[in-house]
Amino acid sequence: MLKLRRPSSSRSGRAILPAKQMQLAVLNGKKSKDTEEVSARCEMEFSMWGCLLLALFTASIGVEGIDRRGARTERISGSAGDVLDDNPVGKLKVYVYELPSKYNKKILHKDPRCLTHMFAAEIFMHQFLLTSAVRTLNPNEADWFYTPVYSTCDLAPNGLPLPFKSPRMMRSAIQLISARWPYWNRTEGADHFFLVPHDFGACFHYQEEKAIKRGILPLLQRSTLVQTFGQQNHVCLNDGSITIPPYAPPEKIMSHLIPPDTPRSIFVYFRGLFYDVNNDPEGGYYARGARASMWENFKNNPLFDISTDHPTTYYEDMQRAVFCLCPLGWAPWSPRLVEAVIFGCIPVIIADDIVLPFADAIPWEEIGVFVAEKDVPYLDTILTSIPVDVILRKQRLLANPSMKQAMLFPQPAQSGDAFHQILNGLARKLPHDKRIYLKPGEKVLNWTAGPVGDHKPW
Amino acid sequence: MKQLAALQQQGRRSNSFRSNSSPLDATVDGAIKSPATIFWLFLHGVCCLISLVLGFRFSRLVFFLLFSASPSPSTTTIYSALRTTLPVISSPQERNVSADGGGSRVVVGRHGILIRPWPHPDPAEVMKAHRIIERVQAEQRSQYGVKNPRTVIAITPTYVRTFQTLHLTGVMHSLMNMRYDLVWIVVEAGGTTNETASLIAKSGLKTIHIGVDGKMPLLWEDRHKFESRMRLHALRIVREKKLDGIVMFADDSNMHSLELFDEIQNVKWIGAVSVGILAHSGGSEEGDVLMRESDADEKDEKKSQIPVQGPACNASGNLAGWHTFDTRPFVERSAIYIGDRAVVLPRKLEWAGFVLNSRLVWEDVEGKPVWVKDLVEIGKDGEDIESPLSLLKDTSVVEPLGSCGRKVLLWWLRVEARADSKFPASWIIDPPLDITVPAKRTPWPDAPPELPAYVEKVTTIPENTEKRPAKSGSKRKRSSRSKRKHNAKVLDIRASTKHAGDN
Known about the structure:
Chain A has about 450 residues and is an alpha/beta fold. Chain A is about 35% helix and about 10% strand. Chain A has a five-stranded parallel sheet. A five-stranded parallel sheet of chain A has the order 7-6-8-9-10. Chain A is built from 18 helices and ten strands. Chain B is α/β, with parallel strands linked by helices. Chain B is about 40% helix and about 10% strand. Chain B contains 13 helices and twelve strands. Chain B has a seven-stranded mixed sheet, sandwiched between helices. Chain B has a five-stranded mixed sheet with strand order 5-12-7-8-9. In chain B, β8 (about 310-315) and β9 (about 320-325) form a beta hairpin. Chain B is elongated, with a radius of gyration of 39 Å. Classes of the chains: A alpha/beta (about 450), B alpha/beta (about 500). Chain A: One of its GO terms (biological process) is glucuronoxylan biosynthetic process. Chain A: It is a single-pass type II membrane protein.
């Protein structure tokens, strides 16, 4: 996943913020509202040194903020077969709002590239739900409500989605459904779910600092968010969100399969950037330095087949490798995980605190290897010291077809695929807590929260 | 993404310079000349200058250094674009484990790039990795490869001749590379010889070396028949020793692909594979004639010119017939005797294209199918057994292998030198060759025409490769005797190169 950075018309402070956050975090261990306000003011000022002194001052007071994150996501470890094979039909009913086509079809018509990029899950989910057995046309018996908004379909010429209009689009859609149907106001969205597959989910920005500053769109705070981004104790991941894998085109993947008896002769495989010179010229920001560390430590190691090449045999090579590295980029998730699982290559996940897709259904610790970012220089020691039977067991688990199926979004949908896992996840959250139903006239959401630009009608 | 990012990069780059200077402008506009502002202005200017010199944002580094002095949860090695100016601090042993209740804090922002002190592979770990790979591959084989692989019994008829080493080495290496258990039965015409024995001993394979009396005949026809006799003899050995496995016929000049050995594991009783027939000998005229012939043929009827012998299947995948090599274009010009410069033709169906379950030739075995004749009955009277099909009463039971004959897994080739051609025994030149100097006056029959010195040097160098320090004196004497300028030059060059070779 590649990142864009807008030219900053602003000020010195924009670049300060990262360093500041780091030092603050180091001092406090927690981000607090007060110091953030201070740093915001610093951005207006002109001297980094001034900010530094101010920050030191306030930090020494020791103002602690609230920990925004609650409990971490649970993982059910057990046989992969059980939960993955659940059939959601009969367990829940989903009502699909009929929004005007400007929210979905028209956008798709304008740019059909949305169907093949890694955020295409939002479109395919809509199409799946329209013809699925869990769909109900009677909203009164529905357990969940789905709003088909293609918020990740405003593409730049190079194909990357621009999230700048997405908050307004989402807000406009929610205004529509709250005006036209009574179900939103009934619970203020607590029994609604949205697909937000973009980099940082419903924070609607590709830059992590900006995304954190924005936070999840206030109107979506009570809804269930189905997103690809997942990191523990992060603003952009709410409790109860469902993490899904990024979209990978199934036909393309299946067309590159090689016979399973081709011996796996590559030990560690990785293809991708190590330094993002365009967006991170100084180095140290991209991937929190983990990818650069990978390169510097292992470029001379013949066991590590890593490079920035774009070979045409990328998929075939993954099937000839024992381990596939899946480090974070600008965001912790990546399509490499999906590819590794499908091609039977053990994923080596280098992303601290990441929340992996369907973490409550797939036993990721038993399938993959987790390496802390600080341990990247010792990756070879770590990987070679894994006992062989553990490796063989992981490969056996990966060979399980239900695992591979759960990572894919095939058209037409098949049982056990990612669509069904999403529905399973939603079904597991039923029945709804009685407390979500608000008394008439009661308002919890703040419709005026968020940056002013978001309130402009879309 | 790159284009848009590139555009933004322009903006950002200029921004990083502007960032230092724009606050400066702001203050000037503000027009508040307090000591504090002046102090900050001054500090800013200093920062600007340092950043200009260093080429990156100096203050960030200071922040980083200052605040990573406090307990940071990671080992820090500072990496920067200017490695020369900044120290590389590495403390790999220092690990402060900070375990909060909610897990470690992941911070946004600039992190150091951790490099360990010796970023090179450790040999012990490399060995461990290789063992892991081996084990993974063994597991793959056992899961997706053939279950219960059977021993391959390869029967190779051979005899001592110029091309024997070439051919036999090829077969040997193919057999050494395949991963099933092997028994290699080498049948030699004219009795076993040390030459062949030493050659096959180099393989390290389990071999049975037997000899058949009688010299290999000179004519191709007779040679084919003799080889069949040799193969039958080998089958009798299989019967005697009750060797269990899959019998395949690896003629020494054929080329086998490793897939062949994987494919023949699927045979139940008797199977047939497609054999590519490379019936081509040197001589371009052959090619031209061939082309003309093939054009004529195509006008007559649609005949496949595919040089393949093997099973032919019908639509449902059952054996329907046989493909054979069309020998009609070559019939007049085929080779008669071994070493003849003409096309060597194969027989209708070569032995090499068949594989048998060794139990077919055993004496009394339960479960032996009814359609097989007993080995003893065949070839008793010395009649020619063209192919293993003679073992069967009913040829329709043959199993077509290699996706019903569509895959060609081995190639048939017959390339031989003349029977009277000389070659050093087991290709070791001993005793050393006598030196031969082309004399100007009495040209050799095949000697090349008069050529300039450097070319002559090329032609004479190969004789130079042996070590004969004793004879160098006599060479010099000859050169002085010949009194030919360029010859002397040639010999001097030769002597000098020989000296180089000696050293």
